[in-house]
Specification:
Keywords: Membrane, Transmembrane, Transmembrane helix. This protein is mainly alpha-helical and 178 residues long. The protein has a single domain, classed as Arp2/3 complex 21 kDa subunit ARPC3. Helix content is 83%, strand content 0%. It contains 9 helices and no strands. The radius of gyration is 17 Å and the shape is globular. The relative contact order is 0.11.
């Protein structure tokens, strides 16, 4: 692919990802869904240009999200997990055994979940996050278990979206620009 097309596609995908992050301030009820969509968009760059290009775009979107996104909780979630997970998912899935893949995926998710909420509460001083836990009258452990169930479904959805891009969208819309 010509260098100018690579730059253009990278810019478009990064811009769409950043727009999704900005919309977390417009639609606060989507503070988990929009960062997840934003991260999935970056998989186009992994498929088209490789792992390194996608990580560079992730870094750019992360930095710009810190500046333009009013919902800082969504930014933390994007940077801590939802932005880079779709990028590294392919690397994790090169491990030979499925069980090892899932152990690595869940370990990464749980570490990111704990770190991101600690950053929100103790570094950014977002005490309302802790109030959300108390308001639910549910322990943090139960929320983490539920989060793992949602992560499992998210991982499957990302796999299917990547397949849809490779087998349906790319041949139909991007085959002529290669």
């Amino acid at each position: 692919m010509k260098q100018s097309l690579r730059i253009a596609l990278g810019g478009i995908v990064s811009c769409l990802s950043l727009v999704m992050m900005f919309f977390t301030g417009v639609f606060p009820f989507a503070e988990y869904a929009l960062p997840a969509i934003s991260g999935v968009l970056l998989t186009v760059l992994v498929i088209e240009f490789g792992f390194r290009s996608a990580l560079i775009a992730f870094a750019a979107v992360s930095f710009l999200s810190l500046v333009v996104t009013p919902n800082k909780e969504a930014v933390v979630l994007f940077i801590a997990f939802l932005g880079y997970y779709p990028i590294v998912k392919g690397k994790i899935e090169t491990l030979r055994q499925k069980a090892v893949q899932w152990v690595v995926k869940f370990a990464l998710f749980n570490a990111a979940a704990v770190v991101s909420y600690c950053v929100m509460i103790y570094v950014l001083g977002m005490s309302e996050v802790m109030q959300d836990f108390e308001m639910l009258k549910v322990g943090v452990w139960i929320l983490l278990v539920l989060g793992n169930a949602v992560f499992f479904l998210y991982d499957i959805a990302v796999t299917r979206l990547i397949s849809m891009y490779i087998f349906h969208i790319k041949p139909k819309y991007l085959s002529k620009i290669h």
